[in-house]
Amino acid sequence: MIADPILDVADITVEYSTAGEPARAVDHVSFQVARGEFLGIVGESGCGKSTLLFAIAQLLSPPAELVSGSVTFKGRDMVGLVGETLRAMRWRDYSVVMQSAMNALNPVKTVAAQYEDAMRAHGMSDRRRIRARSQEVLALVGIDAIHLKSYPHQLSGGMRQRVMIAMALLLSPELIVMDEPTSALDVVAQRSLMVQVKELQRRLGFAVIFVTHDMSLVGHFSDRLAVMYAGRIVEIGPTRPLFANPQHPYTRGLLDSFPSVYGPKVPLTGIPGAPPDLSDLPSGCRFRPRCPKVMPRCAEIEPALYVSGEAHVRCLLYELADG
Amino acid sequence: MAEETAPLLETRALARHFHIGGLFSTARLHAVDDLDLVIRPREILAVVGESGSGKSTIARLLAKVYEPTSGDILFRCRSLRDVRTRADLLAYRGQVPMVFQDPFSSLNPVHPIGYALLRGLALHQPSLSANEREAAAVRALESVGLSPARQVMARYPHEMSGGQRQRVGFAQALSYQPSLVLADEPVSMLDVSIRIGVLNLMARLCAEDGISFLYITHDIASARYVSHRIVVMYAGRVAESGPTEDVLHRPVHPYTRLLLSAVPDPRAPITLTAADTGEPPRVVNPGEGCRFRRRCPLAVAKCATMTPMLSQAAPGHQAACHVTAPSGPTPK
Description:
The complex is a heterodimer of chains A (323) and B (332).
Chain A: E1 7-16, E2 23-33, E3 38-42, H1 49-56, E4 64-73, E5 76-77, H2 83-89, E6 94-97, H3 101-104, H4 111-121, H5 127-140, H6 157-169, E7 175-179, H7 187-204, E8 207-212, H8 215-218, E9 224-229, E10 232-238, H9 239-244, H10 249-255, E11 306-308, E12 311-313
Parallel strand pairs in A: 3-8, 3-9, 6-7, 7-8
Antiparallel strand pairs in A: 1-2, 1-4, 4-5, 9-10, 10-12, 11-12
Helix pairs in contact in A: 5-6
Chain B: H1 2-5, E1 9-19, E2 28-35, E3 38-39, E4 44-48, H2 55-62, E5 70-75, E6 78-79, H3 86-95, E7 98-99, H4 113-124, H5 130-143, H6 149-153, H7 162-174, E8 180-184, H8 192-209, E9 212-217, H9 220-226, E10 229-234, E11 237-243, H10 244-249, H11 254-262, H12 302-305, E12 311-314, E13 317-319
Parallel strand pairs in B: 4-9, 4-10, 7-8, 8-9
Antiparallel strand pairs in B: 1-2, 1-3, 1-5, 5-6, 10-11, 11-13, 12-13
Helix pairs in contact in B: 4-5, 5-7
């Protein structure tokens, strides 16, 4: 347990209604984020990581629906908040940076106009202060103030993503939620952006939830890591030990799927098979059909999150270790 | 032995420029310049670069989707300029098929998998009978690990996962019994856990069936995993090329070093600072000079006035840099 967490996600479940059985994209997920912490959430497509993030940011819309659970942010339950209350909190208390900045920025407005909108919506009206703050945040992400007059199409992909991150910083929120903010960028731009986000986070002290499919990307940056599979957290713990000693067979498989440019060249196997259909899940453990360490009991018992070392692991192999 | 080392496909001073802007604009985007590429039999050649480096343009030039602006492409010592009729073109594309990046949009959703395979065979190998086509399709599906092949042929694309669809893409290419497969980012849309399976498939087809691959990717780690030789592209020009292990362990060009330092690898220390924000240039009407010079930590005055030519750093290993691979006057 974390004392005085900035965010407490308790037992949330999100379902997408379909013609048949609803598909449960997020299934009883709980975790906490400490003030100033960098939490990475990784998983493959369809594991529910983006839906989870939408549920936290209160951005779910039909057919997705939060079926149960609570999201407590700075001591206040966010579930069910609507309209003005939520609008007042967005940008000021927490902000969200989406996957493609191309779609998140308004193409017919300059960067300055979009920054001004956000600040006016939160009661700032002094034009000089608005301008000064806009220049300040752009400088934080290393973009020249001249680009306040630019339209999104005049900026490269990397710059647009940086403009979005600067916008998220405008009102100094305590939590920034990021959904694959670097996946559209080239490796060098991606790495540079990660280094920058980490530096800003250290300097300004906000907490970050960073969702990505690329586990190797967050390895150097996150304090803790949560690995999701088929709607559930299968392993969560401090990043370094999790990389050094992955415990869940899925985490190990994911890590063994990355070829390295260093060291000896080793043959890799990846993980055979594909993630399950969320509306037709296997009995017991959801990873069972792809698991190299599967046991007969795995089909009968759905494992809980067991404590093992510094991590929590959803695998029957660690059931006994959990005193 | 001489036959083994003779190139399967070769490009000579290949260039492709695109007209941009309005009707009277003189702006030319130089997507590829001065490319001398050699692909040998039984070889996986990786072309690595960021977006805008010209790597996809290379694949399209080799597939004859684009015509070269200048230079030549030789397949089995024959110039592609001689491939003119539709029959010749189909035969060439059967010998050198392409596998696309997006397995979700490259298969027609209204037809079953078998249709895509059999139709391709009917086009590229018209001499086969219907039974032979069917047999070739089954063989191809089985060789990429999709079985039972006859059941797979009856399925529709939406019934298959991304990894399976990409295997269908490879099966399509393999059914023509090609000598070279052009694979443009074949795994970048796939989930991490299934990428390795597709890379292993390429390595096996090369080792067992002697098929060559041009593997185009932005992911230098996966390039190392499967390729024998590697070509690093920057802004339409080759920055460095050579045997993969040699290039990655002893990188000569500053851009290759930068790329290597940016690879997300939790097993390696962080060496990159936020200083290089990674903006590859748009190469519109470039003059003389090294295209990497504005980002290069080693740039000297000469870099702005003279385009560096590839020069040998080690046997088979070349780099184009005035500072790290200085060359004498190159006979050109």
